[in-house]
Amino acid sequence: MPYLDDPLIIFTDLDGSLLDHHDYSWEPAQPWLDRLATAQIPLILTTSKTSAEVAALQSALQLTHLPFIAENGAMIHFPASWRPESPVPGARYADIRHTLEELRHRYDFEFRGFGDVTPKQVAIWTGLSEPDAALAMQREASEPLIWFGNDLDFSHFKKCLTREGLALTRGGRFWHVMGVDAGKGPAVQWLAAEYQRQRGKPVITLGLGDGPNDISMLEAVDHAVVIKGHHDHAMPLSRHHASQVFRTSEFGPHGWVQGLDHFITLPAREIQK
After folding, report:
1. Which residue, of 131, 146, 179, is where some domain finishes?
2. Most confident of 79-83, 114-118, 179-183
3. Of 7, 243, 266, 268, which has the fewest beta carbons less than 10 angstroms from its beta carbon?
4. Region for residue 4 given its phi and psi (left: phi exceeds 0; alpha: psi -120 to 50; beta: otherwise)
5. Which of the four pLDDT bands, split at 50, 70 and 90, describes residue 80?
6. Catalytic residues, which ones?
7. What are the DSSP E strand ranges found in the chain?
8. In whole angstroms, what is the distance from residue 64 CA to residue 222 CA?
């Protein structure tokens, strides 16, 4: 198990993981956030949220000096001190919306995306305030949607998206449409490699997430924390050994804390506190 003074990088999902599923609070995780900050361990927010949403959270969490991964890996945002070219080719939001509208018109698919509704409706779907819902609608490379049709049409819908170079990933509340090569896993792998290149030595990666859209991230890291989710979706991973995968018994930030307690060994001075 890694120690707090090892060359760790932590990638964390937000909703239902670091943030409570219902009230979006991270208060139970604050002691660990403080420890990570003191130890200068990068905490990379890795989320389905937009860059506009994450920027506000980064500021509140005092993480603005770090990169973050947004829109399920379709976007990587770098701080001002970084100058790499974004490795995620992705698909532009306008192109995704155009494709979705064409498919819906052609096949009468029954779904609604963020681009179809008002901030008030997004607020109802998500539990966000309307101003925060407006931030969630400032999308650059992915579209969340709710499917209302039947399973047969859904299977056809997925095949149509594949032909258009797009893919679906399942989040806690929504399906997310994005470029076929995008995803949390590829973004995590690229960013971990960039940290290793900058530091000139190997890094140890740990990931925490609760939803199916986190699986590629959890497969890409050295140590994976599967946080108990408010859903009934399977969370299968290719690894099962306790040294690599830990499944929490708590939800949200309480589970987040359980995961770090399980994997990260604290110095004796911390344990004695």
Report:
1. 179
2. 114-118
3. 268
4. alpha
5. confident
6. 13
7. 8-12, 43-45, 68-70, 75-77, 111-113, 142-147, 166-170, 175-179, 204-209, 223-228, 245-251
8. 25
